[in-house]
Amino acid sequence: MMTHLIIFPVLLPLAAGIILLLLRQRNQLLERGLSIISIVTQIFLAFQILSAVSHGDILVYALGDWSAPYGIILVADRLAAWMLLITALLSLFAMFYAIPITEQAGRHFHVLFQLQLFGLNGAFLTGDLFNLFVFFEILLIASYSLLLHGGGRLRTKAGLHFVVINLVGSTLFLFAVGILYGTLGTLNMADLAIKLAHLPAEDVALVQVAGLLLFSVFALKAALVPLHLWLPSAYAHTSAPIAALFAIMTKVGAYSILRIYTLIFGAEAGLSAHLIEGWLLPLALITLLVGMLGVVASTHLRQQIAFLVVASVGTLLTAFGLNTQASIAAGLFYLPHSTFATAAFFLLANSIAIRRAEWEDRLDVGPVIPHARLLGGLFFVAAMLLAGLPPLSGFIGKFMILHASLAHSALPWVMSVVLITSLLSLIALARTGSLLFYRAQPPNPLSNTASITTIYQELLPIISLLSLCMILVIWGGTITQFLHFTAEQLLQPSRYIEAVLLTGRN
Amino acid sequence: MEALISLIIGVLTACGVYLSLRGRTFPVVLGLTLLSYAANLFLLVMGRLVIGTPPIIVDGTNGYTDPLPQALVLTAIVISFAMTAFVIVLALKTYKELGNDHVDGIHKP
Question: ipTM score here?
Fold first, then answer.
């Protein structure tokens, strides 16, 4: 059982997806039950893997027992386990929110949801570059359908842009993979790292082209400026639980950047070492600034949150761009915080929007909504989380990033951009909050909002996601320590390479 | 032969980029298809152009054809095929919902 442990997070959602497809919505209760059981089991598996790798072991699973570098392998290290856990927890609460509302909007919701998880888990676990491409495509095609789920004019338009730009991204990924295979003769990530260190000087330029092509693909997925333009409309127009689940999608890009550029193009890559060092930090800071200006300029709440996602990617990649152990640990702490907080915010925005009748999520003076105190309180907590106010996890994450930048030469840039954007987000969210809750007019007796009375079902996932952020603070010490070890492991790729290439040899 | 193949890949990519920057969905879909053809051909060529040698090394042969890019390109073809099918359906759906085939949904005469 233990040896096969790390294939289960990939197989389980695939199997659940296929079974759900065969059920064809005959039994709603069974469908929901199966979907939730699958996700809960994934959380359990993620915890199992996390405890198995927490002492620094790297688990390697050779598919079909073909040993690396010839076969495809799955690798679980601390980073992969951490990402698996975040994905599984996020998807559980997104699913809880989706069950009473979104599920009915179209067929195959549960199937697509499981296949999305299949792609995500696979992308986090794979140790092979082409396999990463395949899992990217799986999660993308599931995400295309989920994004369009329910239909509608604006959603379809945003969906078309999302699909087209991602297809171009996939083409670039294939070109990059082709160049790497053509020059280095392998696609196993660990093997690529070794081959790259001994690359003859005349091929270096070619491999660097491939490395930067890959970077542009991952930057596209992560919504790094100037490749962020697809994100705000796509996230703002899709349904709330899907937008919440997609909070992890940009993090897949960030994860891939972290993985590829510490493992393959890391410090030991010979002439190609630190390939994106000069690009990542400036682009991340610009992303943060552009995202936050978008937050200030937004006219709709969901659009505002989508820009908050862009800004959070900026903060996250700023941390990764500083490229020290402390900053990577800080980024990995910020990652679940921003994922859970933006997801909760998307869900909350939907709960607010459906109660404002024709005002929906427009940032304008509207009617007083039912349960205004409860929703307002949650809005306050979510806004504090995202603006990074103490004592919540956003503050700790940003503080760790700023603390890590103290010794870096880009300190003035990082410090000023992060602090100014925090102020901008505070202003924008305070304005939003006062528009939505304080300056609201008494409700128009003609408008029909009374039909929505049950709220507690919607509140459970929102409160749970916000409390996950609290857990990040309460167990902050343990988590931070774990993340420091994770960053340490990432910055010593030789252990990963050894673990991968020695599997099946003894 | 190398020059010919690279020329073909270059022309396919250039046409693909040009078409995918057009304003209507049909040229865009066509452009994406050409781009994926270029990528697939590129991937295939990365195993080097070799004629008349076996993919599996046996006694008495010198040289071999790298079979891996062919396997990779099969996967890539299947994926791009599925994606093209999806994007065609999506383009039709946009046409139906937005009333015209412009990618931004705004008809410019």
Answer: 0.93
User: In this structure, what DSSP letter does residue A255 have?
Assistant: H
In which region does residue B56 sit, left (phi positive, over 0), alpha (psi from -120 to 50) or beta (all else)?
A: beta
Taking the C-alpha atoms of residue A321 and residue A225, their distance in angstroms, rounded to an integer, is 14
Q: How much is the average pLDDT of A6-13? A: 93
> B4, B52 in Cβ contact below 8 A?
no
Please state the domain count of chain B.
1
pLDDT tens-place string over residues A226-275 = 899 999 999 999 989 999 999 999 999 999 999 999 999 888 777 778 88
Q: How many CB atoms lie within 10 A of CB A385?
A: 26
Distance CA A109, CA A245 (A): 13
Task: Report yes or no on B79 lying in a domain.
Answer: yes
Say how far apart CA A255 and CA A491 lie, in whole Å: 14
Q: For chains A and B, count residue pairs whose Cβ atoms are closer than 8 Å.
A: 89
Distance CA A336, CA A318 (A): 16
Gap between the Cα atoms of B48 and B50, Å rounded: 6
> SS3 for A70?
coil
Whether residue A97 is contained in a domain is answered as: no
CA A386 → CA A398, A428, A430, distances in Å?
10, 11, 12
Query: With contact defined as beta carbons under 8 Å apart, do A318 and A291 qualify?
Result: no
For residue A433, give both structure tokens: 């909050």
Partner-chain residue, chosen from B28, B82, B103, that has the shortest CB–CB distance to A141:
B82
Domain annotation covers residue A20? no
- Domain interval for residue A418: 276-474
Would an 8 Å CB–CB cutoff place A66 in contact with chain B? no
- Distances in whole angstroms, Cα of residue A152 to Cα of each of A34, A106, A238, B86, B90: 29, 12, 9, 17, 12
Bond from prior residue into A461 cis (ω within 30 degrees of 0)? no
The residues on B that touch A, with CB distances below 8 Å, are 16, 20, 25, 28, 32, 35-36, 38-40, 42-43, 45-48, 68-69, 72, 75-76, 79-80, 82-83, 86-87, 90-91, 93-94, 97-98, 103-105
Domain residue limits at B41: 2-49+64-98
Question: Around Cβ A200, how many Cβ atoms within 10 Å?
Answer: 8
User: Do B90 and A159 count as a contact with CB atoms less than 8 A apart?
Assistant: yes
Give the CA distances from residue B76 to residues A134, A202, A231, A308, B53, in Å, rounded to whole numbers and listed in that order.
Answer: 8, 29, 26, 34, 24
Q: Are A230 and A161 in contact, with CB atoms under 8 Å apart?
A: yes
User: Is B32 part of any domain?
Assistant: yes
Domain count along chain A:
1
| Residue B16 domain flag | yes
Whether A394 maps to a domain, the answer reads: yes
What CATH number did the domain enclosing B78 receive?
Answer: 1.10.287
- Asked if the structure places residue A222 within a domain, the reply is no
For chain A positions 155-184, those within 8 Å of chain B (CB to CB) are 156-157, 159-161, 163-164, 167-168, 170-171, 174-175, 177-179, 181-182
Q: What is d(CA A176, CA A170) in angstroms, rounded to the nearest whole number?
A: 10
Residue B88 lies in a domain: yes
Q: For the segment B19-71, what is each residue's pLDDT rounded down to a tens digit?
A: 999 989 999 999 999 999 999 999 999 888 888 888 888 887 777 888 888 88
